[in-house]
Amino acid sequence: MTHIRYDIIPQGGGWSIAMGGAVGPPYMALNEAVRDTEHVANLLTRNGDVVDIVVWRGGRPHLLERLEPASRPGAS
């Protein structure tokens, strides 16, 4: 199981998604950046990964949510 962290950071008057040193283009609204990050995170949890979504405000990180793989029937 891999633990992945996405940071949503203020940039260029909007919000960008950053992961592993790469920063994407800015979204105009925070909820748009969160929506797209959650979409990718949900795909990753299907493969057993844990994903943290962190929003930076006031120069500080705030854990927005942690998505974990759903238990599959028959899994121990």
Q: Show unreliable segments.
A: none
Radius of gyration: 13 Å
Strand order of the largest sheet: 3-2-1-4-5
Question: How far apart are the termini?
Answer: 14 Å
Quantity of strands, as a count = 5
Helix share bin: 10-25%
Mean pLDDT: 92
Quick gist of this model?
The protein has 76 residues and is of the alpha+beta class. The protein contains one helix and five strands.
Can you describe what's shown?
With 76 residues, the chain is an alpha+beta fold. Helices cover 22% and strands 43% of the residues. The protein contains one helix and five strands; from the N terminus they run E-E-E-H-E-E. Strands 3-2-1-4-5 form a five-stranded mixed β-sheet, covered by helices on one side. It starts with a strand and ends in a 9-residue tail after the last strand.
